[in-house]
Specification:
The protein has one helix spanning 84-91, and strands at residues 7-9, 14-17, 28-34, 37-38, 45-48, 57-65, 73-82. The protein is mostly beta strands and 93 residues long.
């Protein structure tokens, strides 16, 4: 999984990208999970708009090859959403 950083400001957008080093000719189905709950997307990217605290947690992407010759593989990352008010209180000191 490719994520530039895992700490995001509230209200910003985040794009999570999954990549596979498997042979490109093998068809792949992608599955995404947030805190173990299946998300309704099936491509290699997951975009989150207007981040809030409800988006915090563990994100996992899995690629499921449609060929029985290959194994499924998953990657995960933790996403943290930081309130904008936290930054203003530090700047005021």
């Amino acid at each position: 999984m490719s994520v530039q950083h895992t700490n995001f400001n509230a209200g910003s957008n985040a794009e999570l990208i999954c990549t596979s080093n498997s042979i490109k000719s093998i068809p792949i189905q992608w599955e995404w999970y947030h805190n173990s709950k299946r998300l309704s997307t099936n491509n290699d990217r997951y975009l989150i708009h207007n981040l809030t605290r409800k988006h915090m947690g563990m994100y996992q992407c899995c690629y499921i090859p449609t060929s029985s010759d290959s194994n499924a593989c998953c990657a995960q990352t933790q996403v943290h959403v930081i309130s904008k008010s936290c930054f203003s209180s530090f700047n005021d000191s």
